[in-house]
Amino acid sequence: MNDQDERSSAWWAIIGWCLGGLALYVSVSLTVGLLTGSPVLGAVASGLVILGAVVAWRRWAHGVSSTRTVSEQALEPRFWVFVVVGLVLCFFGGQTLAVWLYAEHGSPVFDSSQAAQGAVPVALLLFALVVAAPAGEEALMRGLVYPLLRRRWPVLASALVSSAIFAVLHGNLVQIAVTLPLGVLLAFVYEHVDRLWPVVLAHASFNLASALVPVALIEAMAMPVVFSIALTGVVLVLVAIHPRSGPSVDRADRAERT
């Protein structure tokens, strides 16, 4: 490993890039939200800005083309069946847990978020949920934070930490319950394919389901036995698709495809 590779894998560099990406994402969201009076517009702007910034960073740091192939496991149809099943279990497990937590503890921050979403046109809300948020959040978490952590940590540790950051960014316990298991699943998928578009598509499908599945159905299912079984299923899916490898310090040498 040369001096440049060592610097790119140093903790100070990893933490600096991660904090820079997070600061850009949050500052754009808050600034646009305050200027327009709409947190939804803030989320759209931050998603698009961070997507452009991360794509530019990846091309600057790693080049345009990729030399890494998709894992053998991800080339099998069975892998993608597991991913789809995992997404469904993440959705019902996370959503029912979130509704149960909301009923037990409430969440003023979640209430404010829902009120903001209800104050914008449906078309803008759908664009935010299905395009801007998945693209921006996946660019930030799986395109920047996760690959940086993987330079020093194994898959599971990197997935858990990046997913925890992803969940905490939502700012309330209700959405943390929804996003934490999803984040780990998407990190595993990214590890297998080393490309952003599959995880963006999976995230967009998850968000679209949250807009289409009736709330009454989720509320009817919001029982500990339901979300416990669903989240146990998520763990089993994660075990089945877990990429078994150590820290990937050589990723600084390899290009990554967006």
- Rounded mean pLDDT is 88
The coarse silhouette is globular
What string, H for helix and E for strand, traces the elements in order? HHHHHHHHHHH
How many individual β-strands? 0
The end-to-end distance, rounded to whole angstroms, is: 25 Å
Estimated share of beta-strand residues? under 5%
How many helix segments? 11
Largest pleated sheet:
none
Compute the gyration radius: what is it? 18 Å
How many domains in all?
1
Describe this protein with a few key phrases.
258 residues, mainly alpha, 0% strand, disordered N terminus, disordered C terminus
Description:
This protein is an all-alpha fold. The chain has one domain (3-253). Helix content is 78%, strand content 0%. The protein contains 11 helices and no strands. The longest helix has 29 residues, at 77-105. It is globular, with a radius of gyration of 18 Å. It starts with a helix and ends in a 17-residue tail after the last helix. Residues 1-5 and 249-258 have low confidence and may be disordered.
Q: SSE layout and pairings?
A:
Blueprint: H1 3-8, H2 11-36, H3 39-62, H4 77-105, H5 108-118, H6 122-150, H7 155-168, H8 173-193, H9 196-212, H10 215-221, H11 224-241
Helix pairs in contact: 2-3, 2-6, 3-6, 4-8, 4-9, 4-11, 6-7, 6-9, 7-8, 8-9, 8-11
How would you sum up this structure in a few lines?
With 258 residues, the protein is mostly helical. It is built from eleven helices and no strands.
